[in-house]
UniProtKB/TrEMBL annotation:
<feature type="coiled-coil region">
    <location>
        <begin position="251"/>
        <end position="278"/>
    </location>
</feature>
<keyword id="KW-0175">Coiled coil</keyword>
<dbReference type="InterPro" id="IPR015797">
    <property type="entry name" value="NUDIX_hydrolase-like_dom_sf"/>
</dbReference>
<feature type="domain" description="Nudix hydrolase">
    <location>
        <begin position="198"/>
        <end position="352"/>
    </location>
</feature>
<feature type="region of interest" description="Disordered">
    <location>
        <begin position="132"/>
        <end position="151"/>
    </location>
</feature>
<feature type="region of interest" description="Disordered">
    <location>
        <begin position="49"/>
        <end position="69"/>
    </location>
</feature>
<protein>
    <recommendedName>
        <fullName>Nudix hydrolase domain-containing protein</fullName>
    </recommendedName>
</protein>
<dbReference type="Pfam" id="PF00293">
    <property type="entry name" value="NUDIX"/>
</dbReference>
<dbReference type="InterPro" id="IPR039989">
    <property type="entry name" value="NUDT9"/>
</dbReference>
<feature type="compositionally biased region" description="Polar residues">
    <location>
        <begin position="55"/>
        <end position="67"/>
    </location>
</feature>
<dbReference type="Pfam" id="PF25969">
    <property type="entry name" value="NUDT9_N"/>
</dbReference>
<dbReference type="GO" id="GO:0047631">
    <property type="term" value="F:ADP-ribose diphosphatase activity"/>
</dbReference>
<dbReference type="InterPro" id="IPR000086">
    <property type="entry name" value="NUDIX_hydrolase_dom"/>
</dbReference>
């Protein structure tokens, strides 16, 4: 590794483009399928068959009161809405639940201009369209709690309520209604890859903490929009399988450029295929995200991809992609301060690995 690093500076993005097609990683949230299927991955003229694996089905329509199983959201009640100067209506902890009377509650109705300009990943504001007597199919009320064409409007939390023709956040009040800067009414689906390895010293020995528990590390990226550290995740594109999103976002946010020979590319290809064939789901559901509103919210599928022997992705030298300003291997620890609910996902990962936390 010291004479000519195989994994020096990467251009993984151009190779992971073979993993998935469709809109950009900033495109809107879409279909999370019930089974994560195998995919043919192609680099140049080579092709590798990637094993398939399954995850639990989405909750059935019979699920009831999902908010009772979810702790209070806090980041979704931040005082100022992200990327704006809009103030949320203050919501005390005891008034978050919709079942608690709050007659004076008067949230601002806000949807950002970037969403109202109707990019491919955003819904139309059908409320305004109907007021203007636009009767075209695109202006009709969406089909809630089901697949609506290619748009997945089902929630991992079960059925959500629709009040005054718009979905209601299943966890409770946020202090602002509308869609904010989220594209979809209701659930906006994302995928978060948690790529881990064991921390090792200069001799290659695994490092342990004071309680003799192995220390694990994960790949973290620093977000360009707010400077916070986060998992290299992103939105699930229209009709996209979650495994595609996981690979695409990992490549585009964590591994940016690759300068390697054809032989080295084959080794990298094999490492990525091996890693992403062994993922384990650690979380599926609501995300306490500062972009959430009363009518639009983030949900994710978080999966752990662990390089057990440290001979594959664990050797990658990291370089930030276009959507991130920094990237590094970071220790799993309860002291972490990360974006949205990412610390919760990492705690679940540490428990699954039996690692230090």
């Amino acid at each position: 590794m010291q004479n000519r690093p195989v994994f020096m500076i990467f251009q993984i993005t151009r190779f992971l483009r073979f993993f998935a097609t469709g809109p950009s990683p900033n495109s809107g949230p879409e279909r999370v399928t019930r089974t994560l299927t195998g995919t043919n991955l192609t680099f140049g003229h080579s092709r590798v068959r990637h094993r398939s694996y399954s995850v639990p089905d989405n909750p059935t329509d019979s699920a009831t009161d999902p908010s009772s199983e979810m702790k209070l959201h806090n980041k979704a009640r931040c005082q100022v809405y992200p990327r704006s100067d809009k103030q949320r209506y203050p919501v005390p902890d005891e008034k978050v639940q919709w079942s608690v009377p709050f007659p004076e509650y008067a949230p601002l109705d806000f949807t950002s201009n970037s969403v109202l300009q109707m990019p491919p990943w955003a819904d139309i504001d059908f409320r305004t369209a109907q007021t203007n007597e636009d009767t075209s199919d695109s202006c009709q009320e969406p089909k809630w709690n089901q697949l609506d064409g290619k748009t997945n409007r089902r929630s991992h939390m079960g059925r959500y309520e629709v009040v005054d023709k718009v979905p209601r956040n299943p966890v409770g009040r946020t202090g602002i209604c509308g869609r904010g800067c989220l594209g979809r009414w209701g659930p906006n689906h994302a995928a978060d890859p948690i790529v881990t390895r064991w921390k090792r010293n200069d001799k290659g020995q695994i490092v342990v903490d004071e309680n003799h528990k192995l220390i694990a590390q994960f790949i973290a990226v620093q977000r360009r929009d707010n400077g916070q550290w986060a998992l290299p995740g992103g939105m699930v594109d229209a009709g996209e399988v979650v495994t595609m999103t996981l690979r695409r976002e990992f490549g585009e946010e964590a591994l940016n450029s690759l300068e390697a020979t054809e032989q080295e590319k084959k080794q990298i290809e094999a490492s990525i295929n091996e890693l992403f064939s062994r993922g384990q789901e650690v979380y599926r559901g609501y995300v306490d995200d500062p972009r959430n509103t009363d009518n639009a919210w983030m949900e994710t599928v978080a999966m752990n991809f662990h390089d057990q022997d440290g001979q594959g992705v664990a050797r990658f030298k990291l370089h930030a992609g276009d959507d991130a300003v920094g990237v590094q291997w970071m220790d799993l620890s309860h002291h972490l301060e990360l974006y949205a609910s990412h610390v919760d996902f990492l705690q679940r990962t540490a428990e699954r690995l039996g690692a230090s936390w």
